[in-house]
Amino acid sequence: FGIASGENFVITTTNRKEITEDNFSEIVQDGITLYLLQSVDQMLLSATKERIDFLPHYDTLVKSGMYEYYASEGQNPLPFALAELIDNSLSATCRNTGIRSIQIKLLFDDSQGKPAVAVIDNGRGMTSKQLNNWAVYRLSKFTRQGDFESDHSGYVRPLPVPRSLNSDISYFGVGGKQAVFFVGQSARMISKPADSQDVHELLLSKEDF
């Protein structure tokens, strides 16, 4: 790796958790992505990629939204799909101490790519593991354990306020991925954890599937 004799270095996960003798056997598994850095908080010099493996047939994602909740109520399905997308932002911002910002943008400028719906918030962000969990079909936010610091969490139990302000508006829905593929052909999730300088990006595309 080009490490000089006597040079200090650390090995970390993509969540910047340092690998040590004590946690090596617990953390280091087949397929895990690791960083070799000079320090835990070192700025990455270039973009990195992390492989995510899951098994459902692509039709499970790209067609399930058509067959489930949206068509079953006899109502206009688009608000339900948008509610699923906004739900992620409500959960992410529900414990903000400052301004809580959620924007919904409809993008139609062909010079910038295909038309898109963008939901943008200033919430706490997701770690690479939480983004991985979001990608896994049927990993419900109500069955994820732990808190934000946990590698297995993406959901914060909402405060006792009206449902329009918490993150339970999609309680009876079928999830953000199905909403995405009901509205369009691909999903791009970009997230930066509040306590990290790393930006994580996930792309799910019908064309790629």
TrEMBL record:
<dbReference type="GO" id="GO:0006302">
    <property type="term" value="P:double-strand break repair"/>
</dbReference>
<dbReference type="InterPro" id="IPR036890">
    <property type="entry name" value="HATPase_C_sf"/>
</dbReference>
<dbReference type="Pfam" id="PF13589">
    <property type="entry name" value="HATPase_c_3"/>
</dbReference>
<protein>
    <submittedName>
        <fullName>SMHD1 protein</fullName>
    </submittedName>
</protein>
<dbReference type="InterPro" id="IPR038892">
    <property type="entry name" value="SMCHD1"/>
</dbReference>
